[in-house]
Design a protein that fits this description.
By secondary structure, this protein is α+β, with helices and mostly antiparallel strands. It is 30% helix and 20% strand. The protein is built from five helices and six strands, in the order ββαααβαββαβ. The chain has helices spanning 35-46, 52-59, 63-76, 112-116, 143-157; strands at 20-22, 32-34, 95-103, 122-127, 134-140, 159-165.
Length: 178
């Protein structure tokens, strides 16, 4: 099993190595990832606890070379960390919703993410184009908890909300198409 913590941050480094593939990297525009690194990324995306021995076996590299490549991918920011995937329903949060927010005053400071950061029920905050400014993914225990959260969001960020409740999730947290 890999003993991994959050990957160290650092600047992205250009690879310049042969067999590079476009379209993957910290900014998604022009950074290059070698085919073997792409394979490592895909394997870890499917099983972040895969041992270096298993990674080496599946990539055809030595364990030492595999370890070096994983650390380099972490330094470059392609691997930003490792986490347990928790089943929200089993953890007591069966209700998922997407909450679109729009400021009451378009001239006001765009600081909604900062104003909402303390609300643990917000799993993700995405800046979007369109009528709304942000879309929040939230997980709560009940409709009443959602109603309370919406009140907190409106008060904290001075925004209007539009909510879509998730009925089911056929798939989520898929590995990227590298």
């Amino acid at each position: 099993m890999l003993a991994r913590g959050a990957a160290p941050g650092g600047p992205a480094h250009g690879s310049g190595e042969r067999n590079a593939v476009r379209g993957c990297g910290t900014n998604g525009y022009g950074d290059r990832v070698e085919e073997i690194d792409r394979k490592i990324l895909l394997l870890l995306a499917h099983d972040g606890r895969m041992s270096f021995t298993d990674l080496a076996r599946q990539t055809g590299l030595s364990v030492s070379a595999t370890h070096q490549r994983v650390r380099r991918l972490e330094r470059r920011g392609l691997i930003s960390g490792y986490a347990a995937v928790i089943n929200p329903a089993d953890a007591g949060l069966p209700l998922t919703a997407f909450v679109s927010i729009k400021p009451f005053d378009p001239a006001a400071a765009d600081d909604a993410p900062d104003r909402l950061a303390h609300l643990a029920a917000i799993e993700a905050c995405h800046s979007v184009a369109g009528d709304e400014s942000y879309i929040l993914k939230v997980r709560v225990a009940s409709p009443a908890a959602l109603e309370n959260l919406l009140s907190e969001i409106r008060a904290a960020a001075n925004v209007s909300t539009r909510t879509t409740i998730v009925l089911s999730t056929p798939y989520e947290n898929r590995a990227p198409d590298l």
